[in-house]
Amino acid sequence: MLLAEDKKKLESYVDKLIDGLKKDTAKAKSNGVSGEQLIEKVTNMTVSKLTPESKMILSSAYNMMKEHTLAEDYFADSAHKAAFYSADILKELSKKFDFAVPSEINYEKGNTEVAKMMASGAVIVVGGIVSFTLKSWIPIGIAAVIAGIMAFVLKNNGGTSSVKNIDSIIDEYYASVKKSLLAWVDSIDTYYDKAVAEIKERG
Predict the structure, then answer these.
(1) Which of 124, 129, 166 is nearest to 146 (CA)?
(2) How many C-beta neighbours within 10 Å does residue 84 have?
């Protein structure tokens, strides 16, 4: 399981990534990008940066949890430790996610993909925040989730045609992306704990 300090480290890492995106956004604005073009650029930058970084976050979370697990007395037994490694939890977790960055990024298309994930039971969306249930073996496209969040945010704000405060839309988007990534980390934690419990049950 992830300890409170582990989650804090991962949250700090996500904050650092998003702060970098905010700086890139400010630079784009200073170069004259505005309105719907700025929203498109922000979505593209976020998908392009956070999709591959998500793979790193998954790996980091797994390594933190593995360290705690193998420190348990139960896994001091060589047979139990071998059972843990043969389960290859990281590989099984990785199968549940697609970390590929698409050549074309479209938040409306992302919204459609997220709707499919919702129908399969893989994700739940509440207030623009995507929570992961991992009930589906269809790999969840991280890029689609990150792009789709913008569609949710825009829908809540009446669509781009009536958007008056682009800055607030972008701030809301980044906040929703952060919350969704942290919800994703929680789902990884839950899946991992269940997998370890099953290893122990098998003896």
Answers:
(1) 129
(2) 20
Rounded to whole angstroms, how far apart are CA atoms 47 and 7?
Answer: 22
CB atoms within 10 A of CB 90: 16
Per the CB < 8 A criterion, the answer to whether 130 and 177 are in contact is no
Please give the Cα distance from 168 to 158 (Å, whole number): 13
Q: Are 132 and 184 in contact (CB under 8 A)?
A: yes
pLDDT tens digits along 168-198: 999 999 999 999 999 999 999 999 999 999 9
The SS3 assignment for 77 reads coil
Closest CA to 46 of 152, 154, 158, 176: 176
Q: How far is CA 97 from the centre of its chain?
A: 9
Q: Are 89 and 62 in contact (CB under 8 A)?
A: yes
Quickly list H helices, the chain: 4-30, 35-70, 78-87, 89-94, 107-120, 142-156, 166-202
User: Residue 47 and residue 107: Cα distance in Å, rounded?
Assistant: 10
Rounded CA-CA distance 93/90 in Å is: 5
Instruction: Express each pLDDT in 60-105 by its tens digit.
Output: 999 999 999 999 999 999 999 999 999 999 999 999 999 999 999 9
Could you tell me the two tokens for 121? 């039971």
- Which DSSP helix (H) or strand (E) runs through 14? helix 4-30
Q: What residues form DSSP beta bridges with 132? A: 123
Dihedral sign for Cα atoms in the order 88, 6, 75, 188: negative
Could you tell me the residue ranges of all domains in the chain? 4-202
